[in-house]
Amino acid sequence: MDVRLLLARRYLMARHQVTLIAVITGISVLGVAVGVAALIVVLSVMNGFYRVVRDLLVSVDPHVRIVSVTPGGMAVDDSLEQYLRELPHVTEVTATWRVRRCCSTRAKAR
Questions:
Q1: Is 99 helix (H, G, I), strand (E, B) or coil?
Q2: Which of 4, 42, 68, 99 could form a disulfide with 74 if both were Cys (CB 3.0 to 4.6 A apart)?
């Protein structure tokens, strides 16, 4: 029989009255078991949420964004969209308008 199992059985399954060493050993084994169980649960939940978060971020943010280098922007015409749609592995083309603005008012907040 393995020496480790003999030592574990000696301290965990003592037939005489419970001593301080047996109590400390039991508390230690219980603490390690609870810690490992919590770690397994947390890792499982995080692996499940990873797929959900990845799909959510990919669905919101495009894979490719074509922007203009000039301050006025670029004119979107049908020929550019048609060219992009004809590329292999392209499933969706959408023209968007993105502008940064700030709104202010002189009215006092109540």
A1: coil
A2: 68
